[in-house]
Amino acid sequence: MTNEDNRFSARAARYMKVGTNVGAVGLRIAGERLLGRPPDRSKAAADLAAALGGLKGPLMKVAQLLSTIPEALPKEYARELSQLQSAAPPMGPAFVRRRMQAELGPDWRSNFREFSERSSASASLGQVHKAAAHDGCVLACKLQYPDMQSAVEADLNQLRLIFQIHARMDPGVDTREIIKEISARLREELDYELEARHTRLYASIFANDSMIRVPDVVAELSTKRLLTMSWCEGAPLLQYKEHSLEDRNSIAKAMFRAWWFPFSHFGVIHGDPHLGNYTIFEEAGRPAGINLLDYGCIRTFPVAFVEGVVELYRGLLADDRDRVVAAYERWGFRGLSNELIDGLTIWARFIYGPLLDDRTRTIAEGTTPGEYGRREAFTVHKILKEKGPVTVPREFVFMDRAAIGLGGVFLHLAANLNWFQLFNETIEDFDAATVSERQRVAFENATVPLPSA
After folding, report:
1. Burial of 324 (0-12, 13-18, 19+ CB in 10 A)
2. pLDDT higher than 50, residue 6
3. In the predicted model, what is the mean pLDDT of residues 396-413?
């Protein structure tokens, strides 16, 4: 059987496995509507989670992302899907050896002084192996699972089915742009050569920042499906939950800068801020900064969109409705009624809330990480349901994901900071022309494609 036959077989098997189960959920909902009964969303959500839960692949990552966007999925779906795990079962040693040979050739071991065939970490698209170069440098080898292109395409097909099910429930959001955005980003994550370029871009952005470390790419040991980098030694963030407030605040400041500085100065954002994508390094027994890991989900933005984000913030700060509406339009929202503007502004004030409040505070007072944004999402859901649908611009998807994910991290840390001050320091010298030139130079040096206007 040829490689192409293998790929087709894997894709067909995956379609069959998920499609049958997801399709059954859709058929039952359609049947309930034909009989004049409102769909039982809780049961449908539980059934959908059960249908998808065994895959533990790319679709799980997408499902968790969608759970942060109000009305992108019914709240019952979002709640169930957010519980799913995104990690795939690790490849065994024999499988790892075959994969490494496929990427670096039959003599692949000669490139390393040591190579652990047991994975150190696994995720939805690949797993990481610890190794050592001949000069003693410790390395992290990120190896993609086999046939992930087939898996991604199959999962995107199932995602379309899920959205079709949702469309039968009279949603408040038109999801056409959302699926385009998710499809583009998920396909990009398969390209480790692009991830290497994004890693180098971030390394140049934070080259002189002592609190943020970015791994170095080892180009000669990297391919389209293998990314070899320097190993960043550090401890999981959750180990610091019981540390002093000073330590927790220091970590939170580094996290804040790691996300907002690249966006406001270069139009680029790390679109997947979950707890596995950073570790804490120490100096003299105290946390000194963060290792920023995994550059598979980097979203680059036209400068006009970055300007819209800053303008929306300033419009909210001044309580200037015309300025707020102009910012929504710059983001890409179209045909907004007054009611939809009100609904979007509830969500915008939630996202920007701590940044608008000039005092020391937690990121969301009186809220736990699991409940972060749920009350506001419910209110927005109701407005969009009654007055929508609204078409969500593609750029919104990962901005929203980053803001919610980062807020959840700050809640875990129970950080107590003046977020207003931190954000205004980040944007105080914002100038669209300067950002455009800065972006052009940095992206060209890292050979990252410039975003379309």
Report:
1. buried
2. no
3. 83
The pTM assigned to this predicted structure is 0.83
Asked whether 297 and 185 are in contact (CB, 8 A), the reply is yes
Q: Tell me if 221 sits within 8 A of 186, measured CB to CB.
A: no
Name the residue among 432, 407, 437, 420 with its Cα closest to residue 305. Answer: 432
Predicted confidence (pLDDT) per residue in 123-172, tens digit: 778 899 999 999 999 999 999 988 888 878 877 877 777 777 666 655 56
DSSP class of residue 17? H
C-alpha torsion 319→325→327→330, nearest 10: 180
> What is the predicted pLDDT for the residue at 160?
77
Instruction: Please state, as a whole number, how many other Cβ atoms lie within 10 Å of the Cβ of residue 5.
Output: 9
Which of 69 and 450 is assigned the larger pLDDT? Answer: 450
Nearest residue to 226 (alpha-carbon basis) of 91, 360, 354, 321: 91
Classify 390 as helix, strand or coil: strand
Both ends of the chain: CA-CA distance in Å?
45
Write the Ramachandran bin of 377: left for phi over 0, alpha for psi from -120 to 50, otherwise beta: alpha
- Are 52 and 60 a contacting pair, CB within 8 Å? yes
Helix 245-266 / helix 419-427 crossing angle, nearest 10 deg: 30
pLDDT, position 27: 47
Q: Which helix (H) or strand (E) element contains residue 228?
A: strand 226-230
